[in-house]
Structure formats: structure tokens, C-alpha cells
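thought: user wants a sequence for this fold. calling inverse folding tool.
action: design(structure=
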């Protein structure tokens, strides 16, 4: 005997078989069949989070750490739209999310029925694939179709690259107390794992590019930690003709990697031909530094290889000459054994520039006033080794690129779309699933914008949040332009005098506050001390002085 819910039952069973066990659900009524299928049976680990936007970012943080698909589910109407920011971030950051949206019966769309809107393909511009499950299962072909869609959707979460997948599920009433008959055997199909191989012709063409120049620059964008890839890049860095630039969010550490791009470019002399690469090699996700993008777009790069399995036309630096559709790990495994012994001083030139910038950086910080820059320095020095660090967008992720770290922290940031929404929720999901001490560094606007992240009973005590509160969007005081409009404080900076103290108390967080260098030095050890609650440290910072200090910092580097 067939039943309309059998498609959902097949989806739940296939997810269970594949080991997809985490589901974050926002409460509702139309999604009652989803709650019944996942939370009452099969051992799924279901978590309820009321705010759909926060719930989706929480799941994103979980999937980011697990490197596995996490599902999110909500009711019908505007609820799915609140998932959209996290889905866009997951799409560009390549994080696998399975998005389940309950819907009203298709015959009632645009018919004045409550909590009803056009949900099919609602995420069309930033989703790997979208599906609408059949509303009725009347024939064996209907069931086969639903079963096939379930397999296809689960495959699309990870192949050819990870990302979000949407399944819209129209449900007719009754929603509760439904008895589903014995479900026929489930059938699954998966995609076999393969690894691309460079052809002999491709090898020869790439070798010609490689040997035609003596200066090779590798730029690595955002990556999850990968010890094997890191080891291959360490081998590559031994070639004196190769310089490797990374960022905090690249999660790569070696003495020959240069992780302070903005520092180096600020200290680079006007006559900089010795640093201009003949061959540029790029891979990984977003690069934070605008300086490196601007500089490379202006200089004469002969060849640019971009290594990426999916984005074959990514031309960030406007010199793209070869797209290499492979995972970086597969490429370097095949590429390194082929390379002739390099020669030259290109890597050394960059390392000397990096050392020059380091000395200027340290000299400036010795007399740096109490501002965002010195606050970040104190945080860097005080953070214990065991922590993972999440960086909110705007100033925190940019300041993070200026400092060296005593320990190889894991850094994460929502740099797919680079919005301020959801950073706290993402860090919370990451801390929940990893079980590791996790530090979130955010500005005040990002914190208040995502304060519903604290309305969550699943927050671990090991989550620590530092709010650098300079009374608005401090980055707009540093950027050229907003300060000349006469509208800076109201429309760009969004000036305010709000405090995090009562938000912390409302949600049961331990609260700490610092307002100068002395109090910050006193509060940081107490803040990092293990406790029974998640904690917030609010650090008051002077906005105008912080912008002026950062400008002075880069002028100092330029004059070094």
C-alpha cells in the first residue's frame, strides 16, 4: 500500500544509511512530517533553534567542522527566506547543507492561503541543485521518482564539489497522527570517487609555462586544515624560485610561507619589479587582502594558473591563462615529482620583504595607543593554544591578517559572501560539534546583528566571544570615501551606544568588560579561564583613534 509520505521516508532512510545524522530544525507546524520522520526514529541527532537565520548558520558551522552534510529544516512561508544568507555563504564557501523546506499543497500557491508563497527554486541563484518532491505517491513510478530524487539530492551535496542542496516538500493535511504503512525497499545510487589526472600534453604545456619564468608566486585562499596539502606546499617552498603567500584563514603554517600579505605590500618599495611574478598560481577560497588583488591586477603577469575543480573561469587577478580543473591536493601530488630543480632569489626577496615588514610592525606596536590594533595584539598574545578562532567580517578578519601567532590556530570566517550576518551562530555551531574551545572575535555591529545566536540552548561552555565595541562600523572610518559624504555616522558607521552586558545576562552568559589597556590585560586571563557557561568579553574601543592609528600603521610600514 502506497502513502504520500513515503518519499520523505525514503529520504530519511537514505540519509541514515549514508551517515548523515545531524538535523537542525526550526519549529513550525507544516514541517511536522519532517520532525516526525527524523526526530522520532532512526537515531538522528536533531536540534531545535527557533530563529531560522541563526539555525542555518549554526548548521553551517557544524558542517564546516565535520566536512560532512548537515540538514536544516523549517516550516512554510517566509521561514525559508531566513535560511538564504547561510545558504549563500555555504554555496560560496562550499559547505554541504541539505535544506528541507516544508510547503503547502501546490494547488494552494497564490490562492490566498496562509503562510503560503512560491517556494520552489527560491534559492535558485546560490544553490547547487533544487528539487521538489512529489506531493502524492499514487503509483510505483511516483515512489521510484521520489527515491531517485533523494539519491540525486544527497549526491549533489558533495559532488562535484560540496555545497547546499534544496528539497521543497509539499504536505497535505492531516499533518499529525499519520500512520505510514510498511515502506517498500529503498534503493540508493552513489557517485564513485575519482581523481583527475594530468595528460602528457597538459604536463608539457604546464612545464613550458613553469620553465619560461624564474619567479613563481603561489597565493592560497581560505582552506580547511589539510596536513597532506600543507606538506606538499612545504616541499614546493624549498624551490628558491617559488614564494608562497597565505592568510590566517588559509590554515597553513611553515617558516617559508608568508602569511602577512598586507604588511608586505605596505612595505614594498615603489620599484617592485623583483616581486612581480612570471607565473601566478592560485587556489583555495576567498582571499581577504584587497591590496594583493589591486597590485596584481596592475602588474604584468605572464601566466596565471587557477586550480579548482568547479570554478574554471575564476579570474580574480585578471591574468588567467590556464584553468586546471582538479582538487589542489591531486594537482600537487602529480606536479611536484615532475619539477626540475629551481634556482634564483625570488623566494628570498619576498622573505626579506616580510622580515622588513615584521620589524616595522613590531616597532609601531611598541608605542601603539589603545585602539583596535593594540586590542587585537593583546587578544593574539592571550589566546591559549587549544583554541579554534572564528573571525567576523569587516575589521576583525582584516586585523587578523596583520599578526603572527605563537600557535597554529585553526581560523574560520564567513568569507564566502563576507556578510556580517551569522558569524556568531556559525562559531556556535562549530564549537558545539567540535567540542573544542572556540573563540569568536567580532565587532559590535556583527554581534548585535546576530544576537539571536545566543537564543540557543545548545551553546557549549567552551564558546568565548570577544566583542570589540567601537560604537559602530569602524571600518567605514578607515575606508576612503564614507568620511567625505557627511553621512558617515548615521548611514555608514551606524553609530550607537548599545552595550552587550544585558544581552549577555538575558541569555545566561558570563560577562566581562574592558575599557582600556589595563582592564583588558586584567580581564583576558579571567575570560579565558574554563567555566560552566559560555562567556562574552566586551572591549570598548575608540572609533576615531582606531581609524587614525591604522592609517598611521600603514604609513609607518611604507616608510620603513
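)
observation: tool returned 560 residues.
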Amino acid at each position: 500500500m502506497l502513502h504520500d509520505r513515503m518519499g520523505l521516508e525514503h529520504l530519511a532512510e537514505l540519509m541514515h544509511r549514508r551517515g548523515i545524522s545531524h538535523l537542525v530544525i526550526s519549529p513550525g507546524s507544516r514541517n511536522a512530517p519532517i520532525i516526525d520522520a527524523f526526530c522520532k526514529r532512526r537515531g538522528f541527532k536533531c536540534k531545535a533553534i527557533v530563529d531560522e537565520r541563526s539555525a542555518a548558520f549554526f548548521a553551517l558551522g557544524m558542517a564546516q567542522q565535520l566536512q560532512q552534510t548537515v540538514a536544516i529544516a523549517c516550516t512554510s512561508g517566509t521561514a525559508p527566506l531566513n535560511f538564504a544568507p547561510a545558504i549563500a555563504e555555504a554555496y560560496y564557501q562550499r559547505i554541504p547543507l541539505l535544506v528541507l523546506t516544508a510547503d503547502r499543497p501546490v494547488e494552494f500557491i497564490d490562492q490566498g492561503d496562509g503562510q503560503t508563497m512560491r517556494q520552489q527554486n527560491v534559492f535558485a541563484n546560490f544553490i547547487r541543485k533544487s528539487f521538489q518532491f512529489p506531493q502524492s505517491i499514487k503509483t510505483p513510478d511516483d515512489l521510484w521518482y521520489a527515491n531517485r530524487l533523494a539519491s540525486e539530492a544527497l549526491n549533489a551535496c558533495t559532488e562535484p564539489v560540496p555545497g547546499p542542496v534544496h528539497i521543497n516538500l509539499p504536505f497535505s493535511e492531516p499533518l499529525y497522527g499519520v500512520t505510514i504503512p510498511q515502506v517498500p525497499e529503498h534503493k540508493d545510487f552513489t557517485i564513485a570517487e575519482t581523481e583527475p589526472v594530468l595528460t602528457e600534453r597538459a604536463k608539457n604545456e604546464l612545464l613550458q609555462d613553469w620553465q619560461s619564468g624564474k619567479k613563481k608566486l603561489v597565493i592560497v585562499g581560505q582552506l580547511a586544515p589539510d596536513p597532506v596539502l600543507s606538506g606538499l606546499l612545504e616541499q614546493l617552498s624549498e624551490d628558491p624560485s617559488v614564494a608562497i603567500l597565505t592568510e590566517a584563514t588559509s590554515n597553513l603554517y611553515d617558516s617559508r610561507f608568508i602569511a602577512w600579505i598586507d604588511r608586505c605590500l605596505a612595505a614594498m618599495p615603489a620599484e617592485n619589479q623583483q616581486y612581480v611574478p612570471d607565473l601566478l598560481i592560485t587556489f583555495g577560497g576567498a582571499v581577504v587582502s584587497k591590496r594583493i588583488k589591486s597590485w596584481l591586477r596592475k602588474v604584468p603577469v605572464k601566466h596565471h594558473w587557477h586550480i579548482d575543480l568547479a570554478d574554471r573561469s575564476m579570474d580574480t587577478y585578471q591574468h588567467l591563462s590556464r584553468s586546471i580543473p582538479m582538487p589542489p591536493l591531486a594537482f600537487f601530488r602529480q606536479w611536484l615529482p615532475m619539477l626540475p630543480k629551481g634556482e634564483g632569489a625570488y623566494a628570498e626577496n619576498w622573505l626579506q620583504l616580510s622580515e622588513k615588514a615584521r620589524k616595522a610592525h613590531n616597532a609601531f606596536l611598541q608605542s601603539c595607543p589603545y585602539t583596535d590594533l593594540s586590542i587585537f595584539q593583546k587578544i593574539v598574545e592571550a589566546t591559549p593554544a587549544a583554541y579554534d578562532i572564528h573571525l567576523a567580517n569587516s575589521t576583525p578578519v582584516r586585523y587578523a591578517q596583520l599578526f603572527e601567532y605563537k600557535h597554529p590556530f585553526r581560523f574560520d570566517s564567513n568569507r564566502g559572501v563576507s556578510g556580517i550576518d551569522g558569524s556568531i551562530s556559525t562559531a556556535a555551531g562549530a564549537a558545539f560539534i567540535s567540542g573544542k574551545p572556540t573563540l569568536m572575535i567580532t565587532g559590535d555591529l556583527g554581534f548585535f546583528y546576530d544576537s539571536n545566536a545566543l537564543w540557543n540552548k545548545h551553546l557549549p561552555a567552551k564558546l568565548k566571544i570577544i566583542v570589540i565595541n567601537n560604537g559602530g562600523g569602524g571600518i567605514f572610518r578607515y575606508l576612503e570615501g564614507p568620511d567625505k559624504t557627511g553621512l558617515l555616522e548615521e548611514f555608514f558607521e551606524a553609530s550607537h551606544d548599545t552595550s552587550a552586558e544585558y544581552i549577555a545576562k538575558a541569555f545566561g552568559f558570563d560577562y566581562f568588560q574592558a575599557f582600556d589597556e589595563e582592564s583588558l590585560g586584567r580581564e583576558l586571563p579571567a575570560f579565558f579561564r574554563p567555566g560552566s557557561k559560555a562567556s562574552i568579553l566586551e572591549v570598548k574601543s575608540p572609533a576615531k583613534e582606531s581609524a587614525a592609528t591604522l592609517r598611521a600603521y600603514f604609513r609607518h610600514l611604507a616608510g620603513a
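thought: summarizing for user.
answer: Here is the designed sequence. The CA atoms of residues 288 and 398 lie 7 Å apart.
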